[in-house]
Design brief:
This protein is of the alpha+beta class. It has helices spanning about 85-90, 150-165, 175-184; strands spanning about 40-45, 60-65, 70-75, 80-85, 95-100, 105-110, 120, 135-145.
């Protein structure tokens, strides 16, 4: 009859119905440490529910979910950013401003840079939790092909195409061997 509690409450309280606790909620501020990652927990000791029959308060476990960022991908404490540049910028070289978590940094792109080339900016990533170590920011270059051209641009690209005919851009035998290996 007592459900193993050792006593029966003759007149239970109308608020707690004999449990010794009532349901309520409150707002709690949680300090999220820099560098905390998806899937980690933050334990708030003694901030949980009151125990039955006057028992100690429990803990609250806060599960971290990261919001996707439109600029950066995360890989541990490192960040990856894809930065678009034009053919002329890649061919001639240029200087670009890369956004970081705290500011913008100039990055010199050397002449002849290929699409998918990755540059490393040391200590520009995320901090590690409870550490002075910071990850790196990797900038992946993406060469963008224009989709609409003015008549002047078309004329200039045709001139470049004529000059390019002197270069040998044919795939090597290794390319075809790699291609064959994919299908065999």
């Amino acid at each position: 009859a007592c459900n193993g509690k050792g006593k029966i409450i003759e007149r239970p309280c109308q608020k707690c119905h004999g449990e010794g606790r009532i349901s309520s909620s409150k707002m709690i501020s949680v300090k999220i440490p820099a560098g905390v990652a998806e899937g980690q927990y933050i334990r708030l000791r003694g901030e949980g529910n009151v125990g039955i029959q006057g028992g100690p308060k429990g803990d609250i476990l806060v599960l971290i979910r990261e919001k996707e960022d439109p600029m950066f991908e995360r890989e541990d404490s490192n960040l990856i950013c894809t930065y678009p540049i034009s053919y002329p910028q890649a061919a001639l070289g240029c200087e670009i401003l890369i956004p970081t978590l705290t500011s913008k940094i100039k990055l010199k792109i050397p002449a002849g840079t290929q699409s998918e080339k990755v540059f490393r900016l040391r200590n520009q990533g995320l901090p590690e939790v409870h550490s002075s170590f910071r990850g790196d920011l990797y900038v992946r270059i993406k060469i963008v092909t224009p989709t609409s051209l003015s008549s002047k641009e078309k004329e200039l690209y045709k001139e470049l195409l004529e000059l390019d005919k002197k270069r040998d851009y044919n795939p090597t035998k290794k390319f075809f061997e790699k291609l064959r290996d994919l299908f065999v």
